[in-house]
Every structure is written in structure tokens, then in C-alpha cells.
From TrEMBL:
It comes from Methanolobus chelungpuianus. GO terms for molecular function: ATP binding; biotin--[biotin carboxyl-carrier protein] ligase activity. Residues 1-178 form the BPL/LPL catalytic domain. GO terms for cellular component: cytoplasm. The chain holds residues 81 to 324 of 324 of the full protein. This is Biotin operon repressor. Keywords: ATP-binding, Ligase, Nucleotide-binding. GO terms for biological process: regulation of DNA-templated transcription. Signal peptide: none annotated. It comes from the Archaea.
Amino acid sequence: FGREIVYYDEIESTNSIAKDIANRYPEGTMVIAETQKKGRGRLGSEWQSTPGGIWFSLILKPSIPLEYAPRITLVAGLAVAKSLRRFGVDARIKWPNDVLINGKKVCGILTEVDAEVEKVDYLVLGIGINANVRMKDFREDVKESSTSLEAELGKPVNRIELIKDLLYELEQQYIKFKTQQFSNIVSEWISLSDTIGKEVTVTTPVKIIEGKAVGVTDKGALLVKTRNNTREEIIAGRCRYAKT
Ligand code: BTN
């Protein structure tokens, strides 16, 4: 990954650029920007992208059925968590795609897919890491629940070293995803999960499910055991932890 790099000082969104150029650039191309004016978050939210962060998108061409696309988000979360841990923080993954340190969000992942009928044509993996973002720059509504590597480590992180390590780990996990059974990735994901074992409320477009997160399925869905003892499989949604 990262053999081709497209760099901008400032751009609307690296995910948008990556989508625009995906058919002209090879798999593993990285689009990276110092700041984004219209960084996109999940479920239509805005992703604040001030200087000091690491805002990038990778172009992937995995030729997998569309229904397997959510797996890529888990693969990416695992890779980011593993890489960040090597820089000295206790990074854990909150289903489906946040990486947390001490319960606060340090990284968000936005996967966007372009599919022809049922097969993935290309996929854009957008990753935002609050590396050396200043705490005072966070928007009021996310300040409490966010953190940066700099804040956690007490000193700035070397972004070049971190990007190199991230690209390496993302490529390793992607190769594993393509060549091994997904259950191998799931078990490693679970070992670094912040979500499994917790009481959660998951909101999907059609319903709200409350219960205990007990596992992740082969498709990347969260398994929740509800109070009346049914098991729900949730492929996409917003997950909140119950207040303790
Ligand atoms: C989330 O809501 O948690 C996902 C945030 C994803 C942000 C990254 S930053 C690089 C890439 N470009 C975007 O516009 N969004 C993603």
C-alpha cells in the first residue's frame, strides 16, 4: 500500500478524491491531505479534519461480493488498533469502526463502496486519526468523547513513522483477509475489542436493539443477546454503550 501517493495541503475530502480517481489508479493508492474542508463521517456526519491529524483514503479493488464489504471495516479497525498499540497506547476497537484509547475516540473509519450489481468494483477506505490534533480544536459536541495520540502520550507522535507503520499493517491484514479464513481475523478483532461483553444500544434504520454484545459473525455483524434471550445480528448501525 502507498506505492502511489496523492497528496494535498487542503482538500474537501480524501474519500471523494479517491472515488473520483479509483478507476485510473492501482489498488493500494493513498490519497492524503493535511486538512479537509468537508471531511465526511459515518451516517452523514461531518468529520473535523484540522492540522496535525492523519486524514487519508486507500483505493482497494478486492473483487468480493458486496455482502462481504462490511468485513473490510473490521479489517481496517484491527490494523489501525495494532499499529497504534506499537506507538505505546492501549488502542481498542469499538464495533463497527471506531478505535478508542481509554474509552475515547482517536480514529474513525468510513468505507465507501462502488459496486456493479453484486460485485465490488472498488472500495474506498477512509481513515481519520487524531494524531497531533490539538484538544482545543475539537468541536464542542465531540470534545468530551474524543482524544488524540498527543494527548494520550503527552508528546506529539511522529506522523511519518506512524503512516509507514499503518500502511504496512493495513496491507498485512488485507492480505490475510484475502488469503485466510475470516474467522482468524474475527478472533484477533475480538481480542482487541472494546465492545464485546458490554451492554449496548444499537440503532439501525429499522430498529433499536438493546442487550449484551456477545460476538461478531463471519459477515462482520455484531451479535447482541437481548433481555428476552434472542440473538440479533446487526450488520450496520450506531452502537452506544449503556451508562454504568
Ligand atoms: C467516522 O464517522 O467515524 C468516520 C470518519 C472517517 C474520516 C476519514 S478522514 C479521511 C477520509 N476522508 C473523509 O472525508 N472521511 C474519511
